[in-house]
Hints:
The protein is 43% helix and 17% strand. By secondary structure, it is of the alpha+beta class. Strands 1-2-9-4-7-10 form a 6-stranded antiparallel beta sheet.
Amino acid sequence: MDELRAIVMRAGDKWTATGLPRVSMVRAEACSDQVYEPMLHLVLQGTKSLSIGDQILRFAPATYFVVPVDLPALGQVSGDAPGEAFLALSLILDSGIISAVMADVSQTDNDGVGKTFAVSAAGPELIDACLRMMRLVNRPQDAALLAPMIEREILFRVLQGPQGGILRQIACPDSRLSQVRRAIDWIRLHFVEPFRVEQLAAMSGMSVAAFYRHFRAVTAMTPIQYQKRLRLLKARRQLLFEPHDAASVAFSVGYESASQFSREYARMFGMPPVRDVARFKTPDGSPDPRTDTRTRLAPGPVRPSNQ
């Protein structure tokens, strides 16, 4: 763990590319309000609280979690001691690679979505594989050959652990998770548009009741809550980085009422849009160059949103 932390300390205060396929690292002072891609996320130092729908997950060093689909989430991180940074690394999940690994390991019945969000202790074998992967940051000449093999080993370790069922769901095109992901992809592409749940259920090949149940299992949100989080995260980024007022941003992300937008924004981020964004701007009104919405726009308490 000490060697892993030393490597990741080189990261910037945002998700930083390592030069290795699908592998990123972060050294952060505050957490991300963002849409997480499907990934394996390993915490190395500090603690993290993540609000996903109506669930709050808390992570300590040497724990990991699997993000199964694109998820809009709110979070907060802290170091283990004053002045100490939060450190983590991530591996973006490729369903094709997971499928290839699954072909070589024993299969279990994972037809249901099951428990989607969980925090698991990273065993010594998983940590060792991650360390060997991160050592390749210093040996790019070896990475082309070794990184794919180590990635398969990391996935193998996770498949053998308590969150292996989630990886199997990701890789299986006919799983409930994969069916729900079709609707999630549509919402992400058309988040400013109204929709009917019946439309999404048909897209996923389920009845309305089954779709609603499985969507909540996969995202901890209803479809409307999922869309709302996407809209508000997009709006926050626009307010910070683009010269628009709150009302025009509200309409651009699909709201029909500026007052409703302001109320829901304050409920999610702790204060109305103008006051919230002002915290992250310099005296001349430009975004603070140290600000990165992926890692710094979450200074308030993490709390679930049921709206």
